[in-house]
Amino acid sequence: MGQSVLTASGFARTASGELVCEGVSLETIAEAVGTPVYVYSSRAIREQFDALDRALAPVPHRLHYSMKANSNLTLLRVLRERGAGLDIVSGGELFRAREAGYSADSIVFSGVGKSEQELREALGADILMFNVESFFELEQLNAVAKSMGKRAPIALRVNPEVRVNTPHHYTRTGERGNKFGIPIDEALEAARRALAMPNLLLRGLDMHIGSQVFQLEPYRDGLDRLLDLYSQLRAIGASEIRYLDIGGGFAVTYEDEAPMDLDALAAALLPKIRKSGLSLIVEPGRFIVGNAGVLLARVMHRKRAGGKEYLISDAGMNDLVRPSHYDAYHAVEAVHARDTRSIVDVVGPVCESGDFFALDREVEDVDAGDLIVIRTTGAYGYVMSFNYNARPRVAEVLVDGDRFAVVTRRESYEDLVRLESQPLEWRTD
Ligand SMILES: *Cc1c(COP(=O)(O)O)cnc(C)c1O
After folding, report:
1. What is the mean pLDDT of the segment spanning 12-41?
2. Which terminus of the chain, N or C, has fewer Cβ atoms within 10 Å?
3. Pairwise CA distance, residues 307 & 348, whole Å
4. Assign residue 263 a region: left if phi > 0, alpha if psi is -120 to 50, beta otherwise?
5. CA atoms within 13 A on the CB side of 366
6. Residue 1 has what pLDDT?
7. What pLDDT, on the 0 to 100 scale, is given for residue 5?
8. Among 93, 110, 133, 282, which is best to mutate for testing ligand 1, by the most ligand atoms less than 8 A from CB?
9. Ligand 1 centre and the CA of 283: distance in Å?
10. Known catalytic residue at 21
11. Alpha carbon nearest to ligand 1 atom 10, residue
12. C-alpha span between 79 and 307 (Å, rounded)
């Protein structure tokens, strides 16, 4: 049986062994919308949001969903109805956020390289806060704010230089020697400069230590460093700091890992935050949507070559790049459970050896035409997809109880060439 240990409530097996999303058969969705297609459970998204919200309830807090994990407008609206704010990393995300109805004051803007135009757009909209990552950005934002006759509210994103253990080194951002944030030993100086800039308003301290983080220790140690910095800042007259942003990164279950223990996290952090009198901000992305989504695909054929067996699915690395980009593990399950299993490579049709979802994995014996799901793909799935091999980007479907809707239509061939000019307008200046 394709038993799954995955925790999200949105997907379950019926008595006959069929994987369904809430009250909707994945078979029905595949028939109506085609494959490959991302399928999301709105219930699972709401439950994750609510669980985190409950765990943080003992202190004043704000949940700013990190929309780069999945920025679908309908998903954003589901979260807005729950009371979420957003963490954005680009002008394009600001645009999407506004399209989804978020008020500017529910938005914080992170990112290691913000363009002047992006700063202008966000400041013009009156967002809650800029998470500033460098001395350069302090100067730049101060100048932009001055030219607009405004004061920009900021938090300093500090790199607390804690040891973080994530599945891949690409997803560690809070250790010494990476591009993110202001090194902890320069943070006091950065704050001094910010306090001296007339068009900045220092409202918070911020960190984001990595993604898919299981342990509490890096959060606890990072928080201690931020709080230590906070008392030094108070001593030099910083009086407007209200927010302590501990970033996102809370882990979800891909295989059989224990997910982030929210109660333990709360117990480790909240007493310190309460004592500081500051409001807590968190920026979870993956935690909210990761397990709420699957990539539903069809097996095109099975192939034996060089002593190995391959399952070739109609989804490819361009639809889900995490296995190839991060060596990420994603569970692969048959929609209709099978009793027998074999060891196979699950691959896609793209002309790249890196086009795989699972290597030497024991999976259920599915045949050509059968449906499979690649699980825990609600985060960093569709948003990282691309058009390599001129493959149209897939559709996204949201399930709500016993109904479903296409929330992003599948791209057409025409969409693939829409932005390319013809006839050409040659110019020399
Ligand atoms: C990506 C990112 C997040 C969210 O990370 P998750 O691992 O998806 O929770 C939060 N804050 C910042 C600044 C980020 O870049």
Report:
1. 97
2. C
3. 19
4. alpha
5. 29
6. 36
7. 47
8. 110
9. 6
10. no
11. 248
12. 48
